[in-house]
Amino acid sequence: MPVLTVSDLCFGWPQAPLFDHLSLQLPPGVSAVHGDESCGKTTLLRLLAGELPVERGSLVLRGTHLATHPDAYRALVFRTEPRSDALDAISARTWFSTLAARRPNFDTIAAQRLSSGFALDPHIDKPMHMLSAGSRRKVWLSAAFAAGAALTLIDEPFAALDMNSIRFLRTLLAEASQHTDRAWLLADHTLPDGMVLQTRLQLGAGD
What we know:
- It contains 6 helices and 9 strands.
- The mean pLDDT is 95.
- It is an alpha/beta fold and 207 residues long.
């Protein structure tokens, strides 16, 4: 059974239609959406997360309909947003504690272990604005893999990462590809060879 079912999704920005009756199913494991710049990858993740209102269509996540139970739907989703400045004033450790208080499935111990795997120990108590782009992305990735969400949406997962972190992330994604009740969707221009993907969606200009 799919974790997420999207039916007849329509959405566009003024003067820029993006999705016209898009339907897809995300099975458990790791899937990917890829395409050129400005083709709608990030917008699609925001729609699937319930952050943008759809013009038409339905989204059902583990039997929960976004249209009728939006809060319950969004509680099942975790989306990475490493470019955001909303967390600039707090540390990764503080953010992990905040997430644990808001999300019953969030595993703080796992988050700390993951951040160590990404070599973040020297930076775990620094305000996020002091971290490099790569380190901020590692914080978001650590939270994503500790969140226990039914649907995890990761934008540009490998951007700004050093080689050791890329190898560690690929190990985590290989484990995620074996999940039987959780779906992961990666969005990027291209993805490294050798990844096990359940579904691959190619977006073109104007999609």
